[in-house]
């Protein structure tokens, strides 16, 4: 949809960031929105445990599986265009999910929403990285973007309880309203995609098929392993098939002239390290959160809503850290911020080793949550900036998809490993000792990330022309640009 009047991108940078952050807030909120509502959905629709699990898992599996395809599609077909249409799908399936009364259709709506989110996330983040110049400007924008994600997740934990008290269908209708508002202003707020010159690269259909299927099976195997068992045919079959497909994918990428994932992108030590840090960071924080929420409910007897409210101070600490981290990064660089953040993140998890069967919240739990949150927000911003630093503009969507996929995969691994430790040590009814072992394993994830960040996160060395665009700021085309060069 072309603009009706010339405008400069600078006048709309803030509005563009607001629109992108609003959708990220919605995506993050949607992840945590479902948990508290499941008992009400079960009672109202008469659903079984497996269907309820897939209301959660269907979104996670689809989101993780389609991220790489979504990121490359944004680079090839236009970031604003993809963001717009994926948000439209997200809004429609949110509305549909609130209207249906069949469990299968509800799961289908969640799967489609996960696919839409997998196209939205890399498009939104790559719009930011190509709109804001690398350095303090991008660091600040990424800080606001990260802060929005953290606040959305925390809001979901609280709103899920409030909305469910009114009616569980509101957890579908509210995202529909927000996504519709984002959709209404996207084409005004976000600058048009710069037209491609020359021949458009071919689309790697074989690579897309093998990568998507491989990641889908990998995430599926990890998500279902705690329930069906690590040695089960379903788990082993999923994981083996995933490895085979991903090996085939790598072979295809090596032989194609226009691959879905140019393997040259991993020559950047900073990018490769950032993705490694992102994977173990998610393994630590998502795995720990899974264990901590179980501890609060099963050991301390908190309700689901009480457990969600209990970790709100951690979310507040994340917001504070993400707001302060840009200053630290601009002053000291990415490596000190990442190392300090992972040190605090792991330290907060280790403080949970002080917990008992009747732990006092202000003196035992609250300090651990705050320390963890401060480290969480600081390290998250650092490795996300590192993951896209020094990357060519035409590969920004791919770079953002890679780090987001690393987070999804790491979260799946963290939850699966945490569940395995709990059941392996404590059986069907985990003891306090089993929880402590699980917390320790989550802290080890943070320690691995700390070492990786210390060794591999330095100043990115971009090759000539890698981040430069017309105008020198890496921004997408403005309406004025299109009028000057309609080709």
What report would you give on this structure?
- By secondary structure, the protein is mainly α.
- The protein has 2 domains: 9-194, MFS general substrate transporter like domains (Growth Hormone, Chain: A), CATH 1.20.1250.20; 264-460, Growth Hormone, Chain: A (Up-down Bundle).
- Helices cover 76% and strands 0% of the residues.
- The protein is built from 17 helices and no strands.
- It has helices at residues 13-33, 38-45, 49-77, 79-99, 103-131, 136-166, 170-189, 205-228, 233-255, 269-299, 304-310, 312-332, 334-350, 361-388, 396-426, 432-456, 479-484.
- Helix 4 packs antiparallel against helix 7 (170-189), helix 6 packs across helix 14 (361-388) and helix 10 (269-299) packs antiparallel against helix 16.
- It is globular.
